[in-house]
Model the fold of this input.
Amino acid sequence: MKKIFAILSLTLMMSCAGKEQKNDASKNAITVKGSDTVLPLTQKEAEEYMKKHADAAITVVGGGSGVGITALMDGTTDVAMSSRQLKMEEKVKFDEKKSNLKEVIIAKDALAVIVNPKNKIDKLTHEQLSDIYTGKTTNWKEVGGADLKIIVYARETSSGTYEFFKEHVMDKKNYATTVLNMPATGAIVQSVSQTEGAIGYVGLAYETKEIKPIAVSYDAGKTYVLPSVIAAQDGTYPVARPLYYYYSAEKEAIIKPFVDFILSEEGQKTVLEVGYVPLKK
Amino acid sequence: MKKFIERIIEGALLISSTVTTLTVLLITIFLFKEGLSLFNQSPLEGDNIITLSADNTVEHISSAQIKNIFDQKITHWDELGGKKDSIILFTFNDLSTYFSDDEIGANFEFLPHKIDSLVSNTPGIIAVFSKKYLEPSFKGKIVKVENVTLTQFLSGEEWFPTANPAVQLGVLPLILGTLWVSLIAIVIALPIGLATAIYLAEVANQKMRNIYKPIIELLAGIPSVVYGFFGLIVIVPMVQKTFNLPVGETALSGSILLAIMALPTIITVSEDAIRNTPRSMKEASLALGANRWQTIVRVTIPYSISGISAAAILGIGRAIGETMAVLMVTGNAAVMPHSLLQPVRTIPATIAAELGEAPKDGIHYKSLFALGCILFLITLVINLWVDYISRKRSNYSK
Done:
């Protein structure tokens, strides 16, 4: 019994000690919350940053872009990471609170449209893609391929890429009901690699030999661009989006060094390592 | 002193069972409170309203029609019984394409007036914006949108919980998908499970039993994500090749996987039931000249039927509630299931996949809780039903 008490009191003391430490460092503690797309990048950057600055304490939490922005509104996070720009409604809410919001683009993310390597199609226009995902086009022969049913793969609604693809490729139209929703990007790659008539979209970093990325045209078929880091960087590849950090100007003093670190050459190298597109220098 | 300790233990037991019961009750109450708050609420996001220009003759637009309009499947008002004008879309996010920042004003103070004049000057417009920006002397027409009702929820065939501006909450494909996948899973698993249980309990010798039993029980310990991954890489291509399908993520793949996952439960529980048949009964049967097979069919199985039914319920319970594995192999397309060889979407998979990004207390969030209520009711009904049957049967066999 005594032993248990001893252990109990010891853990209690330790947890108290831990708390004190946290209080000491709270001046430099930053909470970053939001998009699950930006999450792995922020985590990696925070790790690197904390290695260099022993006094910094950065907590990174996922949950989705919307969750992060709401948390920033409620003041429960210092930085909101988001894979989309603020919606008009959200901007209005921040304006009502009279908070001076800072917006920083920290990196870019590009989506590659992929098909099975056996598929002889290697390029599609914006309109064709949109028709495929809204269910207007259901056979590959309608876009110049073999007589094969198109199997359309997308991510779940909770994924940032779901909304992004809907906005940028499908002009905000809804997905067809027959679209297969996969829980992870890895699952899309796996399914597309084993299904001949498949089409899907994945982050640029996910490209492997088992799948074939296709070139996309946003000018009605005049120029087709294959997804690549360089093409996404200089803006010629159209299916790319910026990734944002939002924070209130009042806290700029503690947040700015971290943001500057991400934007530095070293930070942008990490961006490439994690699989996103670094900003153009 | 001894008595005192006994009292304390008794009290502790009472407390723990009370706490458990209360927890279950509270979870159920929470589930239904959140789920039921979905109904009689507008399908529009936030406090948005839908307005038309005053001389538009269309009076009523259903939630499904709103979706088709914004999907540009309906492009002319005459398709809805109005004039021949083509439909012009306006949502809050298009603000910057219609007006400059100066026109709106720094704090949106001129916005109500701007929207008002836009709506009244554009005959074919359908404008969605927040009630806050409605000019008091608004000259357009505000369209009433039907609230979400229970019948609509249960009988709707389109599941677009994030559609903008009006969500589509039809859960029929999800309910049918869940039942369909679980039913086929149990049809596959029950005969195999029962056969294995009979073999282990009655036929196998001690040595075989010692090898098979731990291996089968090991199946129950594999995490469901691992099952899902196995299903995606092995079962899905197998189904695709065997039936020569364009896509392998089908209800059948899900059923096969769920059958494998439900097997350990079915085997363990029904084997226990079969082994509980009193030796005297079996011996009496054998003494009457029945052979071993006749004894199994006529004596052992009828005696243990309630245990076997329990095994089946637990198996169905596992199948209906299973989330991760099904999420990975059934393709999750929310379409009405017509055959085994097409993708389906189940309720647990939907909740797991979507709850992460559904804003708290929003309509999507509530609809997922309502789905949880439906899942709860389905399992409750199945439990009560099989309970009833097994009780009836065991009385009969006595």
Observations:
- Chain B has a mean pLDDT of 86.
- Chain B touches chain A through 45 residues (CB under 8 Å).
- The radius of gyration of chain B is 29 Å.
- Strands of chain B lie at 48-52, 88-90, 125-130, 141-143, 159-160, 168-169.
